[in-house]
UniProtKB/TrEMBL annotation:
The species this protein was found in: Ornithinimicrobium avium
Any Pfam family matching the protein: TauE
GO terms under cellular component: plasma membrane
Record-stated family: Belongs to the 4-toluene sulfonate uptake permease (TSUP) (TC 2.A.102) family.
Transmembrane segments: 34-51, 79-98, 104-122, 143-161, 196-218, 238-256
Name recorded for this polypeptide: Probable membrane transporter protein
Protein's membrane topology: Multi-pass membrane protein
Organism phylogeny: Bacteria, Bacillati, Actinomycetota, Actinomycetes, Micrococcales
Primary site of residence: membrane
Protein's UniProt keywords contain Transmembrane: yes
Length: 264
């Protein structure tokens, strides 16, 4: 890897800071970090960019997960099984990553994101208050749905990954009835597991660019801490608004990528 000048290092540091903040609030920091890595390291292999992004992300996600846990105290009876299923799914997804092209997934993900956006806007009260589905009468069903969410979204994160944190938040709010703040806290724990699982696959292959990943990770830590504190202080209404804004950005980004692929 060629040496990076000060301007590129500053660019990557700012990208890591912004990604950590966005990821802590509602997920999706990878859509900031990955394009930044592509710009700064055009000669790097795709697997190196993915692996380096995971290293930066896991440092910020760890910080935000700990901050959420101390301030929100999410129910670990759901969060830990969710994270375990997400870890297993992410390992499987990472192993399949070399067989799957991003071009094949972009149109599908775009449709899913548009559907999520329409559903969220059509239900303005969704996630404002916590109304758990299944509840105490059906704890096994509640856990089974959480495990399915972890496995499916974890596999997606290991294989590709854009918007994983947001998918976790949306699934926990819409399928299980959590408020946005509680869902974000659980999503951070699950996202930490998926990042760790991907690194378990990528590190032995020597795919991580350690100097760049540690720089972005340090900035990600600061962004993750600030983002989690802001989200906890402002509550579910703020997180929902941030979710909609970030979702719109995802739709624009992936929509432009899909359009470019069709034209190409």
């Amino acid at each position: 890897m060629p040496d990076l000048d000060v301007r590129l290092l500053l660019f990557l540091a700012l990208a890591g800071l912004a990604a950590g903040f966005v990821d802590a609030v509602v997920g999706g920091g990878g859509l900031i970090q990955l394009p930044a890595l592509l710009v700064a390291l055009p000669g790097a292999a795709p697997v190196q960019l993915l692996a380096t992004n995971k290293l930066g992300s896991i440092m910020g996600t760890t910080t935000s997960a700990l901050t959420y846990y101390r301030r929100v105290r999410p129910d670990l009876r759901t969060a830990l099984p969710l994270a375990g299923a997400a870890f297993a799914g992410s390992v499987g997804g990472a192993l399949l990553a070399f067989l799957i092209t991003k071009a094949a997934f972009n149109p599908i993900i775009l449709v899913v994101l548009v559907g999520v956006g329409i559903y969220t806007l059509a239900r303005p009260s969704m996630g404002q208050m916590q109304r758990l589905r299944f509840g105490r009468r059906h704890p096994r069903r509640h856990l089974a749905v959480a495990l399915l969410i972890g496995l499916v979204i974890g596999a997606y994160d290991g294989a590709l990954g854009p918007g994983t944190g947001s998918f976790f938040v949306f699934a926990l709010v819409s399928a299980l009835g959590y408020g946005f703040l509680e869902a974000s806290a659980k999503a951070k724990i699950a996202n930490l597991a998926t990042n760790l699982a991907a690194l378990v696959v990528f590190v032995p292959q020597g795919a991580v660019l350690w100097q760049v990943g540690l720089l972005m990770g340090a900035c990600n830590v600061v962004g993750g801490y600030l983002g989690a504190r802001v989200a906890v202080a402002r509550g579910s209404r703020f997180v929902r608004l941030f979710f909609v804004v970030v979702l719109a950005a995802f739709i624009v980004k992936i929509g432009l990528d899909t359009w470019s692929q069709l034209l190409g």
